[in-house]
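Put briefly, the fold is written as integer tokens. One such record reads:
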Amino acid sequence: MAAGKSLRICEKGHKFYKTSECKSCPACDKENKPNSGFLSKLSAPARNALVFEGIDTLEKLSNYTEKEILKLHGIGPASLPIMRTYLKEEGLSFKE
């Protein structure tokens, strides 16, 4: 175990180590990953951040600015090009 990591156990009983306060279980994240759509292309932290905010469709995503999305815990700059591409394919974009 690396220094600073603490053992966590999720509600399904999976054991994992984390350094942050993030309660996201890697095993559950893998089980819950969608097979298709824009959420399936994002990292687990980014996907969880959006779903936690109720943003589970491109239409809902288009109601936010890029700045607002970047403020969500778990979203990093690498996620934006993926989201932009999927929005563009549907004729949508981030709010200006």
